[in-house]
């Protein structure tokens, strides 16, 4: 396969991938077995899209290795935003061979906030970009066929936070969603950042406790402190948008750990969101998973990710059981 750079009419940098006599525009294939998440069973494609602010951003699309222009049945699609300081390429590594096992596609975008590229914190423009991911994927891979009735969102940490806000703002897009280890109250999170663990080596690296570095970044991205920009913090907080989530009709899984050392106080983050959703609508289709894993360690192909995908209907159900350390509460039977 040969690859060459070209430029689209919009001016964004694009690539040309040649398959014999056939050409696929605006995409570059990542070789099988690469660090972008490919395996012998899964192929990763790096595409580029134009974000809400005009910036060119990348996304990694994972597909079963057999899938291509000549063999392209409609596939379910998972939109998977990454965690803080992550990338689409890094997020793609978590999926292993699962897209091949379940015969589904995953798009892992780099994302873009109001000011910061890797700390978007559920900025409205970023959430709208996530909602456009199916269109970005189809533009880049015109032979890709998406089952529009089976589009999902799944992310951990900041990716879970943004998944929740995607449910709030674009519910008609989604057939289901999974939010893992999420911040749900950005105001509370800002206040707790100075307590972030940072030893002497950490302080030497950053010149100050890392929590203060994170606070400064959040002020830059959101546009102030919770005191000076309360509406901006509320607009990005799932708890402040709980009514929209509760009545979205989107089947939602909320995962959190009692031993989370990154998003601490999950009792008042994910746990509080669950309580509020139940108060707003006792029939909201929300299931919960609570355990004692390290932050975001459950979102891996060889960890608990398969259980989340099974509940979405993306993997076959088998006899494998959840670890006894994980408490699962199913969605209410009255869920619509």
Describe the 3D structure.
The chain is α/β, with parallel strands linked by helices. 28% of the residues lie in helices and 24% in strands. It has 12 helices and 13 strands. The protein has helices spanning 88-92, 98-102, 124-131, 133-140, 158-169, 186-192, 200-206, 210-222, 230-235, 242-246, 270-280, 305-312, and strands at residues 2-7, 13-19, 22-25, 27-30, 42-50, 56-64, 75-79, 105-109, 146-156, 176-180, 252-257, 286-291, 327-329. Strands 4-5-6-8-7-9-10-11-12-13 form a 10-stranded mixed β-sheet. It has a 3-stranded antiparallel β-sheet with strand order 1-2-3, with no helix packed on it. The chain starts with a strand and ends in a 7-residue tail after the last strand. Residues 1-35 have low confidence and may be disordered.
